[in-house]
Structures are given as structure tokens and as C-alpha cells.
Amino acid sequence: TTYQWKKDGVNISGKTSATLVLNSLSVSDNGSYSVSVGNPDRLWLSTDVSLLSFVNTPVSGVNYVKTGLNQVNSHPDSLTLAVATVAVPSFALAYPGELATSDVDGDGWVALVEYALGWSRAQGSAGKASIFPQTVVENQRLVLNYQVRANDPKVGVTPETSTDLGNPSSWSSTGVSVINLGNVTIGGEVLERRSASVPMDETKRFLRLMVNQSP
After folding, report:
1. C-alpha angle 136/160/157, rounded to 5°?
2. Taking all residues of the chain, what is their mean pLDDT, rounded to a whole number?
3. Tell me: the pLDDT tens digits for 164-188?
4. Distance CA 204, CA 183 (A)
5. CATH topology of domain 91-213
């Protein structure tokens, strides 16, 4: 039995086994994938189809379609099985043509921060306030509640604390407690809710979110 994986209908060089593995997905991997299964001896086994699999890292951003099983009959020359459609999130797709530091709508929130918190330019401005962090005081702790886009490994959001706003180098994640509060869907995006906090004592403390994007 032979296998040939395709992306958008074009053969992928070297991808000729029953399992397609895509590691460290990037925007260039966006597309629809399928596999052509050939059987020169014209004798099909159930494992010819059941062994087919699609593996990727990270797993988020992949929609499994898996169609075509009804095309299997006793003696076909080949079988094409649509397996997956990959849609990898990225800042470039969410905010096309914009810099990370741009603020096209003038709301004071730069594009990369909006993206990291789960927004995109296509969503417009209506409802955007729902992604912005909220600061409260609970149980003698300063608490910063926020949500993040967890399906793009290139973007990180780290809560930091400082006791001196006049000293830019004083910000640090040391001493900040972070709790995962589960998921929430905002604007069609599934976001991870988090809560960062520091104790409130005789020392004045501040909290902020540091957003970083790796190449």
C-alpha cells in the first residue's frame, strides 16, 4: 500500500507514510490536507484506512474534517481521503499590514496586545472592551483578571509587579501568583482566563501585563 500526502491538492515531497507529521506549525502551513492511498495489488485491508493519522505541534488551530471513507470499495485503484484543514492563528493574519505597536483605531491599545488578549482587526470595535484586563481588590490582594489567546505559541503574556512606577527596571514576575480560571469564548475565540495577584500590605504595589512575540 502506498501513501502520498497533499497540501491544497499538491503532493508534499517526502510525505509518503500513513501518518503526516507537521511540527511547529507556522502560517505557511495553512491549507487543506489530504492523502491518496494506492493499492497496487488491489487487495484492501481495513488497516489501509484505519491507520491514517494527522499529527501536528501544537495541536491547536487544526480542524479535522475526515471525509471520503464511503469511497472505499472492494477493488479501487486508489482512495483520496480528506483529513484536515489547518488554520494557524498569527498576528499577521489577525492584523494584516499592521505593526505590533500600531493603534489604528486610536483606543490606546496597540495591535499586538489586542491580539494577545484574543482580538482581531476583522472583529471591529464593538465588544472589544470585554477583552481588556480588570483590576480588583480581593482578600487583601491586588488582583488582575484577564484572558489570553492560548493557541499561538509565538505570543506570550506575563503578569509583572512593581513597587515604583518611576523605575522601568523594577518590573518583575517574581512574587506574582497566577491562577488558571478556565476558558471563555469572546468574539468567536476560545480564550484562557487567568487571574494574577500580589499581596496588599504596607508596600504600594502595581500590576501590569507584559506581551512578547517571538520570531
Report:
1. 95
2. 81
3. 999 999 999 999 999 999 998 877 7
4. 31
5. Immunoglobulin-like (2.60.40)
CA angle 15, 10, 54 (to 5 degrees): 45
Helix or strand holding residue 50 (H, E):
helix 47-50
CA-wise closest residue to 14 among 3, 23, 25, 1: 3
Domain ranges of the chain: 2-86, 91-213
73 confidence band (pLDDT: 50, 70, 90): very low
| E-state strands within 9-154 | 10-11, 19-22, 31-38, 53-56, 62-67, 78-86, 134-138, 141-148
DSSP string, 130-147: GGS-EEEEETTEEEEEEE
Is 191:150 a contact under the CB 8 Å cutoff? Answer: yes
Distances (CA, A) of 110 to 31, 101, 117: 29, 5, 11
* Angle subtended at Cα 214 by Cα 194 and Cα 181, rounded to the nearest 5 degrees: 10
- DSSP class per residue in 51-62: T-EEEESS-TTE
Report the chain's C-alpha Rg in angstroms. Answer: 23
Task: State whether the Cα torsion 40-43-48-49 is positive or negative.
Answer: positive
